[in-house]
Design brief:
48% of the residues lie in helices and 11% in strands. The protein has helices at residues 11-17, 32-43, 50-60, 67-70, 86-91, 101-109, 126-129, 146-156, 160-167, 172-197, 210-221; strands at residues 21-26, 46-49, 117-120, 139-144, 201-204. It has a 5-stranded parallel beta sheet with strand order 2-3-1-4-5. Helix 2 crosses helix 11 (210-221). The relative contact order is 0.21.
Length: 227
Amino acid sequence: MASPFPDTGSSRELTDRLAHVRWIAGGTAAGKSTLARVLADRHGVHVYNGDRAEHSWLARCTPQRHPHLSAMQGVPPGGMWEGRTPQQVFQAMAGLHGETIGFVIEDLLAMTADHIILVNYFGILPAHLAPLLYRPDQAVFLLPTPEFRQNALRARYADPARAQANWGSGDPETMLAMRLARDALWDEEVRRQADGHALDIITVNGSTPATDLAGQLATHFGLGRGE
């Protein structure tokens, strides 16, 4: 498979150009967006929202370089789940195959580097992120406990309209069970790779208020020291 990284020169040159970037990745429903908002309010960092950016990637991807991402074009709500097992959905994830990280890099390099940029995005694995880090403390992976995630997703999709927009006409309980099983596989892969690359993981169980957890992340990222 071709390198997921755009041709921007040497790897050291790329890490230097991204030295102002901090990364919050990990599992779904771990509170990444909430923490990013708190850090933006407290420290004035610029937040790059990967979930929103994904919409532009579909217009830029090609079947040759991004087969899994390209396969999502035109898929109706719930279509990626229909007739598949959670394992099959997991294996079809573009982020698992490094198809998303290149778009993130391109977007970041097009942004101003005079402020710290905080990336808030789920679909990045430690093995794809590690080569981009000037220092390991630029990144943290948040992984929710199963109970925390289930409660968060139940609340998120309690609105029938929102559930239908994401899962189509599928039975909400069936779709939620598949989503939880898929996400558990992603978490397992994140944990395995983070251990292998000595990158930090924080387990989120709801016992620590978001404001306090944001303070921990600010210290981890070195925010407040002349950013």
